[in-house]
């Protein structure tokens, strides 16, 4: 074969390879972190997100985390692109240098987190927690609830002995009597109330909003705003469905959680639903949380929350119908 013919053959082979590749582009992957409870659990079970994103060339990969801090550590190290947490985890994550964006939030759910004590505990008020051991997941939404509850009782954070444990270990310590109180969120809260007859010393009502935030890795959101928009739209839609059909939602969620329908329904009812954009009011509330933790030296520096709020491009609808 002549050199000219060989060259022509190689060019033809390359062209054919590129042509085949054009029709067989490997799908990209949206990696979502979720916790044991919330709208993402239902979205995962329903499968509609996968159908919507397939048309945009994306697969979906789901990873469960025990709490918000662990989830955002996954986002920080690049193992996930998107997730949901309470108010405090993104503050700690942003302070640690995580390149994250707040992309949406749920309405307040202040009764969905609480300070619990054992049913036979002599403790009857938050003021009586002075000097006591209190279990909580460090950097989680309940961390701020505890700070605010102590302040409302005339105590400071240094007046108690925090015991930092993830939910499963905290429950074990609570059952053993190794701690005097446990600050926890649903569905762990509802389960402890029903299964252990734990008493609520104080929930978030009148103290905190307990927003749920949807967060994305900044590089992913900036590269794929349409994917983020589709995702938030699906979350919003399933939240509306849960609000209108709490009993049906309970039927779906209970087996996923391994909890009774009674416990699950209580947690379902206490959650806020309806993903919506981050408003200036929500930014101010989140800034107060960040300032509080900076003053307590629980984070190493002051933050500007607005710097981490997603602004969808004008050509992209944040909440497509």
Write the layout of secondary structure elements.
Blueprint: H1 3-23, E1 28-34, H2 39-46, H3 48-54, E2 58-64, H4 68-76, E3 82-85, H5 88-95, E4 100-105, E5 113-117, E6 133-136, H6 141-152, E7 161-164, H7 167-176, E8 181-185, H8 188-195, E9 199-203, E10 213-217, H9 218-223, H10 225-244, H11 246-257, H12 261-270, H13 280-295
Helix pairs in contact: 2-10, 3-10, 4-5, 8-12, 10-11, 11-12
Subcellular location: Periplasm
Organism: Pseudomonas songnenensis
Main location: periplasm
Structure, described:
With 321 residues, the chain is an alpha/beta fold. It folds into 2 domains: 28-108 and 210-308, Periplasmic binding protein-like II (D-Maltodextrin-Binding Protein, domain 2, 3-Layer(aba) Sandwich); 110-203, Periplasmic binding protein-like II (D-Maltodextrin-Binding Protein, domain 2). It has helices at residues 3-23, 39-46, 48-54, 68-76, 88-95, 141-152, 167-176, 188-195, 218-223, 225-244, 246-257, 261-270, 280-295, and strands at 28-34, 58-64, 82-85, 100-105, 113-117, 133-136, 161-164, 181-185, 199-203, 213-217. Strands 2-1-3-10-4 form a 5-stranded mixed beta sheet, sandwiched between helices. The model is unreliable at 6-24 (pLDDT under 50).
């Amino acid at each position: 074969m002549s050199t000219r013919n060989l060259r022509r053959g190689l060019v033809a082979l390359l062209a054919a390879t590129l042509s085949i590749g054009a029709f067989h582009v490997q799908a990209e992957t949206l990696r979502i972190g979720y916790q044991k409870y919330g709208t993402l659990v239902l979205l995962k079970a329903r499968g509609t997100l996968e159908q919507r994103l397939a048309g945009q060339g994306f697969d979906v990969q789901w990873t469960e985390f025990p709490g918000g801090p662990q989830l955002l550590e996954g986002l920080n190290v690049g193992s996930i692109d998107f997730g949901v947490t309470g108010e405090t985890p993104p503050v700690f994550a942003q302070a640690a240098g995580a390149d994250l964006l707040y992309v949406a939030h749920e309405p307040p759910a202040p009764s969905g987190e609480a300070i619990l004590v054992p049913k036979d505990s002599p403790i009857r008020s938050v003021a009586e927690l002075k000097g006591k051991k209190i279990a909580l997941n460090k950097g989680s939404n309940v961390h701020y609830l505890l700070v605010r509850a102590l302040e409302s009782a005339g105590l400071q954070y240094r007046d108690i002995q925090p015991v930092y444990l993830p939910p499963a270990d905290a429950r074990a310590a609570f059952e053993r009597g190794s701690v005097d109180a446990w600050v926890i969120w649903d569905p762990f809260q509802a389960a402890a109330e029903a299964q252990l007859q734990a008493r609520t010393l104080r929930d978030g009502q009148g103290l905190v909003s307990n927003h749920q935030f949807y967060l994305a890795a900044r590089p992913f959101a900036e590269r794929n705003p349409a994917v983020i928009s589709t995702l938030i739209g699906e979350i919003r839609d399933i939240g509306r469905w849960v609000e209108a059909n709490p009993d049906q939602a309970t039927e779906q969620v209970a087996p996923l959680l391994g909890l009774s329908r009674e416990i699950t329904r209580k947690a379902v009812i206490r959650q806020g639903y309806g993903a919506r954009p981050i408003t200036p009011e929500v930014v101010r509330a989140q800034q107060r949380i960040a300032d509080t933790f900076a003053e307590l030296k629980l984070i190493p520096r002051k933050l500007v929350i607005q710097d981490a709020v997603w602004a969808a491009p004008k050509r992209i609808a944040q909440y497509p119908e």
